[in-house]
Amino acid sequence: MTMSNTGGRRKPPTIHDVAREAGVSRGTVSRVLNGGHYVSPTAAEAVNAAIRKTGYVVNRHARSLITGRSDSIGFLLTEPQERFFEDPNFNVLLRGCTQALAAHDIPLLLMLAGTEDERRRLTRYITAGHVDGVLLVSSHSGDPVAQELCEAGVPLVACGKPIGLGSKVSYVAADDRDGARDMVRHLLSLGRRRVGMVTGPLDTPGGVERLAGYREVLAEEGIGYDEALVVSGDYSRASGDAGAEQLLGRRPDLDAVFVASDLMAQGVLTALERAGRSVPGDVSVGGFDDSSAALAARPQLTTIRQPYDRISAEMVRVLLAQIGGEDPAAVILPTELIKRGSA
After folding, report:
1. Which of 131, 162, 183, 192 is least buried, going by the fewest C-beta atoms within 10 A?
2. What is the pLDDT of residues 71-130, one digit of tens each?
3. What confidence category does residue 316 fall into, taking pLDDT thresholds of 50, 70 and 90?
4. Interior angle at CA 276, CA 271 and CA 278, nearest 5
5. What is the DSSP letter of 3?
6. Model confidence over 44-68: pLDDT tens digits?
7. Half-sphere exposure (CA, 13 Å, Cβ side) for 241?
């Protein structure tokens, strides 16, 4: 690196420094930085070694003026801010997506849009070209964000299948319905017959699919669907607590509960303890996610594991492919039943 004339402070290395260190032209360095097209493996290796040695960092603003890209991705959560801090699944997804993008040297911008005004502002920001694409988490039916971004031509990948958008939007999802089926079968295998459910929000794909799996297994086993055994939650701990109270009020003979998230299941355990019901002695409880909430629960939760690392990696892969010109894609990943102390 060269020294400045003011105080001996080092100037940041330039593309010329990299070219000189690698023994190649500036144009070759530029081609390596922009994808490596028409560059021999030997030259590419020399340039990358020079970048590491000099500590060169790409001037993203200058490159964006040339490529028309921002070289950044948005992680858009359409939930109230407090949910981001309460629900451990969002942090796991954010960390996984950040790590997957780091391999491509692309930063991830966290965007929280829990109100209509926030959604409008962020939609304007995104469609103005400040990010190259969006990873959308927790999209509710009737939420216009996915539709508006899709119509604006913004590359978009949703976590879970967006309701009502068909094949217009790429998505990556765990197999919610099959996971629910596995859990309900497990509860029935324990001899339980009055199996209640606290659903997720029924305007989200996970909420709809997990309820569908619950109903299907009851029908297959010849157990009639009882509306009194089903209450809706919103994936929060408080809604799990309130849901269990409702179930116990309606059906005091309840002997199992399938809960559509581990965080809600913590609330269910609290309500059952308050009512003097032992778990799993009196009531078996099964969750969904295999999040940190499952291990923090007492007893620890039997649950359905979502492969969050794979979900994050696939969301990033599909989005980068779409930014590169590929068509929308759908990826559904298998879940796994994890048995612990609650059932």
Report:
1. 192
2. 899 999 988 777 778 888 889 999 999 999 998 889 999 999 888 898 889 999 998 888
3. very high
4. 90
5. B
6. 899 889 888 888 776 554 554 444 4
7. 9
Residue type, 263: L
Encoded tokens for 8: 């001996």
Cα 210 from Cα 297, distance rounded (Å) = 21
> Which secondary structure element, helix H or strand E, spans residue 110, and what is its range?
strand 108-112
Closest CA to 290 of 280, 303, 309, 300: 303
Q: List, in sequence order, every residue forming a beta bridge with 231; answer none if it has no partner.
A: 198
pTM of the model as a whole: 0.77
3-state secondary structure 252-295: CCCCEEEECCHHHHHHHHHHHHHCCCCCCCCCEEECCECCHHHH
DSSP per-residue string spanning 52-84: HHHT----HHHHHHHHS--S-EEEEE-S-HHHH
Q: What is the mean pLDDT of residues 293-320?
A: 96
Tens digits of per-residue pLDDT, 252-275? Answer: 999 999 999 999 999 999 999 999
- Tell me, what amino acid is at 47? V
Residue type, 87: D
Question: Residue 87: exposed, middle, or buried by beta-carbon count in 10 A (0-12, 13-18, 19+)?
Answer: buried
Q: What is d(CA 59, CA 269) in angstroms, rounded to the nearest whole number?
A: 52
Check: CB of residue 235 under 8 Å from CB of residue 262.
no
- Which residues contact residue 216 at a Cβ distance below 8 angstroms, ignoring those fewer than 6 apart? 177, 181
Which residues sit opposite 259 in a β-bridge? Answer: 198
Rg (CA), the chain: 25
What is residue 114's three-state secondary structure? coil
Query: Could you identify the residue written with the tokens 């048995």?
Result: 339
Instruction: Report the distance separating Cα 297 and Cα 141, nearest Å.
Output: 31
Q: Which two tokens stand for residue 288?
A: 């969904």
| Residue 254 burial (CB count, 10 A) | 22
3-state helix, strand, coil in the chain (%, to 5): 45, 15, 35
